[in-house]
Design a protein that fits this description.
Blueprint lengths: L9 E7 L4 H17 L3 E7 L8 H13 L3 H9 L2 H7 L1 H10 L4 H10 L3 H13 L7 E4 L2 E4 L7 H14 L2
Parallel strand pairs: 1-2
Antiparallel strand pairs: 1-3, 3-4
């Protein structure tokens, strides 16, 4: 089968702040969606660090470094599981998570110092602002934006409805 006949996955952009407790709670929905759809749904982390979370910007850069080292989602999930600890202890938590996942923590430290991932984080944030993202988590699937920062209630079901419709080609 060539690429033109292969079914392209539906992209789910997840605008996220890695220090955000709401994003931590939303992780269960993202996991459930990944379990339900497998390769037919491609969740993509999009960075939207909020000013009120003083370590979110560094966490976004660290997530980019984790992706570069081949462990993006595992790293994101591990950091989101520790939002309170990140808020309390800051960047040492980011390096600790990298070590726990067998990543090159020294390279993480260097990346945070030299700012090599600043442009990627800034570009995501600028794009998010341009499309109306104001809080996290916010989801974009198809051409619909769903704001999870106000309430997670019913969002997974709504995402499933949209994904099912897009996958059916309707």
């Amino acid at each position: 089968m060539n690429d033109s006949t292969a079914i392209r996955p539906v992209v789910l952009d997840v605008w996220c702040d890695l220090e955000c407790p709401d994003c931590h709670r939303a992780l269960d929905d993202v996991r459930a969606l990944r379990a339900r759809y497998g390769d037919r749904l491609e969740p993509r982390l999009r960075h939207f660090p909020l000013e009120k979370h003083k370590h979110a910007y560094a966490a976004a850069q660290a997530a980019e470094e984790a992706a570069e080292q081949g462990r993006g989602w595992p790293y994101v999930e591990a950091v989101l599981a520790r939002t309170a600890e990140l808020a309390a202890k800051g960047e040492p938590v980011l390096l600790e998570v990298a070590r726990e996942l067998g990543l090159d923590a020294e390279e993480f430290d260097t990346a945070l110092i030299d700012g090599r991932h600043l442009l990627a984080v800034d570009a995501d944030q600028a794009e998010g602002k341009a499309i109306g993202v104001t809080g996290t988590p916010t989801y974009v699937i198809g051409d619909e934006r769903l704001d999870g920062g106000k309430s997670q209630e019913g969002l997974r079901g709504r995402i499933e409805e949209i994904a099912d419709r897009l996958l059916a080609g309707v």
